[in-house]
Design brief:
Helix content is 76%, strand content 0%. By secondary structure, it is mainly alpha-helical. It has two domains: 74 residues, Rna Polymerase Sigma Factor, Chain: A (Orthogonal Bundle); 56 residues, Orthogonal Bundle (Arc Repressor Mutant, subunit A), CATH 1.10.10. It is globular and about 45 Å long.
């Protein structure tokens, strides 16, 4: 149990920031962070050590967010109700665009997807990402750049008609 408690203290803020960058809702990010650690505690012995503990936790966090989106918990309806109708429509369009962008990120090949996610949403440095994969910060930097280039190309192809 001490191992879990120390992992919680070490990774809680990183998981929260990762989720906050994905969903942009502090209350939802906090709730999903707690769910992430609850889920990780239930499967603590399943961690195989093939990657880092932080990558494993971010994967669980991402799945928690996707589950919340499927349950439609990710929509801040209390905030949306206070907006004028045209702003609500704009917010929903923005939300759809964000989900479409996340779908495109999900289509990136590994390890680009994980590197892009950790850098963009997890606020990890190239050095930290390289260390997670047992590689150099230059390797992480190059793969992040390639992921951004590929994602940019995918966005242009996907949204060209809009």
């Amino acid at each position: 149990m001490d191992d879990f408690e120390s992992a919680y203290r070490e990774h809680q803020q990183m998981v929260y920031r990762f989720l906050l960058r994905l969903c942009r809702n502090p209350h939802l990010a906090e709730e999903l962070t707690q769910e992430t650690f609850t889920q990780s505690l239930q499967h603590w012995d399943d961690f195989r050590g093939q990657g880092s503990r932080s990558t494993w936790l971010c994967t669980i966090a991402k799945r928690q967010l996707y589950s919340a989106v499927r349950r439609k918990e990710a929509l801040p309806l209390d905030e949306a109700e206070a907006l004028p109708a045209e702003d609500v429509t704009d917010a929903l369009v923005q939300s759809d665009r964000v989900m479409a962008a996340h779908r495109l990120v999900h289509r990136l090949p590994e390890p680009m997807r994980e590197i892009f996610t950790l850098r963009t949403f997890g606020d990890l440095s190239h050095g930290q990402i390289g260390s997670l994969f047992g590689k150099s910060d230059s390797w992480a930097r190059v793969n992040y750049y390639r992921a951004r280039q590929l994602l940019s190309q995918m966005i242009k192809e996907e949204w060209m008609d809009e």
